[in-house]
Fold:
Amino acid sequence: MEEVLPGLHRVEVPLPRSPLKSVNSYVVKGEERDLVVDTGMNREECASVLLRALRELGVDPQKTDFFITHLHADHLGLVSFLASGDSRVYFNRPESELLASWEGVGGLILLAGIPEEELLRMLETHPGRLYGPSALPTFTFVGEGSRIEVGEFSFVCVSTPGHTRGHLCLYEPHQKLLLSGDHVLGDITPNITPLSEEENPLGDYLKSLERVASMEVDLVLPGHRRPFRDLRGRVEELKLHHHLRAEEVLSLLEGGRKTAYELASGMTWDFEDPWERFPPIQRWFATGETLAHLRYLEEGGRVRRVEEGEKVKWELS
Ligand SMILES: [Zn+2]
Structure:
């Protein structure tokens, strides 16, 4: 736990067996009520660390509100456990609808060409299934421009779709502070996965990167790993990463049409293990990431999809 700024604390909540290692929960101390931004997964290892930190900081659940940047289990998972009946839980509306249904997974299966038996294993180990909240709290919906006042901090919600479709950052204009959730991370590239055939989440993501790069920010408080300062520099790195990744997809397609899953197996990933030894859930993320690039390239007229029997394959156009 560290006090990042007077009245604002970062709690590192462990994520066992995840390559992310931990998630940041930020505690903002107010006069009457405190605010907790993101919570960790709904599992014992997260709950014990966060509860201990909240106790040390004198946070009373009865007088605490929550802000959740996006629906992923490592951010949302513990909120139902922590919130009291008096707590407000600020969240975005598009993702509350997704949470209610797990809709969209079907679209990804068809589009990605994931073998069915593998898909079942991926779903069994999906963190959203294993460590999401046990029951959903009543949300207070916020969106672009919504304001949340806590103590010295006057936050404004910034809509940043891409990593997920309703992702929100919190911006504090006086202190030039951005709580960036998983939109911009210091040394990890946030995963981008389409949840439907129509979505172009990478296109949305690149626009959302431009959006935050245009803001005056001195300090970024990300959802994972350490705070950092050079937001614009990091945005440039992320843009370059996606540009190179898109080029890699195009060059692999020169060998002929492939499914997203087949393409993903040939791409370079940040794992030491070969594709055959990736855990199913990492293959899921890799396939989703590949599909996001295919959809982006499709929108730009660089690739097109061809239906072959039950499968969707992709080729250069
Ligand atoms: Zn996330």
